[in-house]
Amino acid sequence: MTQKINRYSLRKFKGLRNRLNALPQVSRNQDDRDIESLLHDLQVHQLELEMQNDELEKSQESAQAARERYFKLFNQAPVGYISIDETGIIQKANQAFCTLLDMDFSRLRHRPLSRFVIKKDQNRFDREFVYARDHGGTVKLTVSMVKQNRKLIDTELVIRVLNSVDQLEDP
To answer: Of 24, 32, 84, 92, which residue is least crowded by CB atoms under 10 Å?
Structure first.
């Protein structure tokens, strides 16, 4: 909305400036009044643009602060969190999840989450993941996962599809 207003105001500002430049310099009395009116309009629009710019900067600062809060909450949570894409590929993992599987994030990123679920639980995991993805619900299931040292760990997974929060980038 702000960008539309800014574009509109900018176009109006440019139009007024062009009208001012196009005025002939012949009849002083009428031209002076026109110029004063146009100058006033230009000043008003400049002030509007400055106010809109200030609001846009505040919105950007607020969005950045929200991203930083999300980033801290995600990474410093005491429970394991991961973000996976619609195909089940790990995009993000917090420190607690990496510690749970005893792996660095570099070994998890861009790999299917199902790769770490033991074979006997994979069909159930796949079915529940697809349900949560396609229906937007929350699904809880317990699966055994394979740690880096090949030991198994029973893990309760809560799969929930998030739209807007998931789209946030790291600050």
So the answer is: 24
Structure tokens at 16: 């007024």
Note down pLDDT in tens along the chain; length 171 residues: 455 556 667 677 777 667 766 665 555 566 677 788 888 888 888 888 888 998 999 999 999 999 899 888 888 889 998 888 888 899 889 999 999 999 999 999 999 999 999 999 999 999 999 988 888 878 889 999 999 889 999 999 888 876 644 454 554
Tokens, residue 70: 């999300």
Sorted by sequence, the CB contacts under 8 Å of residue 161 that are 6+ apart come out as 132, 133, 136, 137
Mapping DSSP to helix (H, G, I), strand (E, B) and coil, where does residue 147 land? coil
- For tokens 């946030």, what's the residue? 168
Nearest to 9 by CA among 60, 43, 59, 58: 43
Distance CA 42, CA 14 (A): 9
Q: Tell me the C-alpha distance between 103 and 165, whole Å.
A: 25
Q: How many CB atoms lie under 10 A from the CB of residue 116? A: 22
How far CA 98 is from CA of 75, 108, 116, in Å, comes to: 10, 8, 12
Structure pTM?
A: 0.60
What's the CA gap between 98 and 86, in Å, rounded?
A: 21
